[in-house]
Design a protein that fits this description.
alpha/beta; Rossmann fold; Dihydrodipicolinate Reductase, domain 2; Alpha-Beta Plaits; 3 domains; binds NADPH dihydro-nicotinamide-adenine-dinucleotide phosphate; binds L-homoserine
Length: 439
């Protein structure tokens, strides 16, 4: 059989594992793909650091992607440029593309998809979300006959590693981040992880596939974990919860004149300790998918790291090779639904608000009055401290579901109340389809 020739762009944490697996499993991959899958070249930034690649290595990525003897381009450089230009050139030249680049897909997925359509080639990107976990193909293919209502979960290994370490061993944020970078989980710039942008890119990709709508990273409300403190983790434990950085993509039904929409958001939230997502530790990822006919599905596995991510890249590569051997292309994404994105202010969740307040008569009533005034219903209130001559007490208010804008307005007013010394933290509380967060 004529071999399928592969140009690799990048040979770092992920790329070097792709090269290793391509060599170690050459015979089996050939048997599965229906033709040998061969490396035609590997483009990197600093060729002198990749002597092990011998003649395959080059610094000329633009030349490599359009070479006549290349059928497929695998991109594991990351970032927007030069990846975008290289992939558009490759697609234009009729090469199929496999990429792990969520940042690029979440910004310019539509442009890449159009270029793939124009040339009649494949664009696959399973590795871009949740590392080794087969998730995008089930959303695109297995659930194509169902109506997905929610995709939610832990999609960033670095932040889950950090939050797990802070919660389990009291490890400092800085030490845990350093260890995640050493293990190859973190992005080249780890602020993409800790500020939530990596998870937001993944949320955009998930929402696009699940709801047949183009959602970009700019549509995703995004908050990271920098402000999560040891106090927040302890406060979560007090109500039987743990804190996880969640990506939540939901279909929002039409309501009060507003059309059906999608919501995509990323933030740290309290979830019940008994929820399956609470026991996802370290760099593992887990994603809940809810669909009208299928009900709840859970996908779990290694969400970051060289070998797990290379597994997903290789899966795509075999799929592309099979399509090439068979003379066709695989299933494409669709964006026919074009649902609007619901603004964050209109999104409803529950909240845990921790306040330092003056401990005197009437304070609780004044605070409860502000929640009521803004239409935010309180589920539980707990006071600790105060009494015995202590001037202030800690008050925790857990609410029922309320619009983000109403909660923000309430907190704005509370901050200005004479009796409120400080609003220490505001964290969202998510049941994720399983009732039972303690009040
Ligand atoms: P690395 O930083 O480890 O590797 C990047 C590679 O790209 C290096 O080999 C680098 O070359 C090469 N490179 C950088 N700039 C250029 C350029 N201008 N031209 C040619 N080559 C270039 O990244 P990762 O392997 O960690 O990540 C790669 C992609 O995979 C990213 O999109 C990332 O988001 C994604 N991903 C990563 C996961 C992980 O766990 N690490 C998990 C899932 C997805 P040189 O070696 O010479 O510096
Ligand atoms: N930096 C990412 C993470 C890599 O920590 O999850 C996987 O996409």
């Amino acid at each position: 059989m004529k071999p399928i020739r592969v140009a690799m762009l990048g040979c770092g944490t992920v790329g070097r594992e792709v090269v290793r697996l391509l060599h170690e499993q050459a015979d089996e991959l050939a048997a599965r793909a229906g033709a040998p899958v061969q490396l035609a070249g590997v483009a990197v930034r600093r060729p002198h650091k990749h002597a092990e690649l011998g003649d395959l290595v080059t610094a000329d990525a633009p030349g490599l992607v359009t070479r006549d003897d290349v059928d497929v381009v695998v991109e594991v450089i990351g970032g927007i440029e030069p990846a975008r230009t290289l992939l558009l050139e490759a697609l234009k030249a009729g090469k199929s593309v496999v990429t792990a680049n969520k940042a690029l897909l979440a910004e310019d997925g539509a442009v890449l998809a159009e270029a793939a359509d124009a040339s009649g080639v494949d664009l696959y990107y399973e590795a871009s979300v949740a590392g080794a976990i087969p998730l995008l193909r089930p959303l695109r293919e297995s659930l194509a006959g169902d109506r997905i209502t929610r995709v939610a979960g832990i999609v960033n290994g670095t932040t889950n590693f950090i939050l797990s370490a802070m919660s389990a061993s009291g490890s400092s944020y800085a030490d845990a981040l350093e260890e995640a970078s050493r293990l190859g989980y973190a992005e080249a710039d780890p602020s993409a992880d800790v500020d939530g942008y990596d998870a937001a890119s993944k949320a955009a990709i998930l929402a696009s596939l699940a709801f047949h709508t183009r959602v970009t990273a700019a549509d995703v409300h995004c908050e990271g974990i920098r402000s999560v403190s040891a106090g927040d983790i302890a406060a979560a434990a007090e109500i039987g919860c743990v804190i996880k950085l969640l990506a939540i993509c939901e279909r929002v039904p039409a309501d009060a004149g507003a059309p059906e929409a999608v919501s995509a958001r990323v933030y740290p939230a309290m979830i019940p300790a008994a929820h399956p997502l609470a026991s996802v530790h370290g760099a593992f990822n887990a994603v809940f998918v809810e669909a009208e006919a299928a009900g709840q599905l859970m996908f779990y596995g290694q969400g970051a790291g060289g070998a797990p991510t290379a597994s997903a890249v290789l899966g795509d590569l075999v799929a592309v090779a099979r399509n090439r051997v068979g003379g066709g292309r695989g299933p494409r994404d669709s964006a026919y639904a074009s649902l609007p994105v619901r603004p964050m202010g209109a999104v409803q969740t529950r909240y845990h608000v921790s306040l330092e307040v003056a401990d005197r008569a009437g304070v609780l009533a004044a605070i409860a009055g502000e929640f009521a005034h803004h239409g935010v219903s309180i589920a539980a209130v707990r006071q600790t401290g105060g009494g015995d001559g202590e001037p202030s007490a800690r008050l925790v208010v857990v609410t029922h579901a309320a619009p983000e804008a109403a909660l923000a307005a309430t907190v704005g007013v509370l901050t200005g109340l004479d009796a409120v010394r400080a609003v220490d933290s505001v964290l969202r509380v998510e049941d994720l389809g399983r009732e039972g967060v303690a009040g």
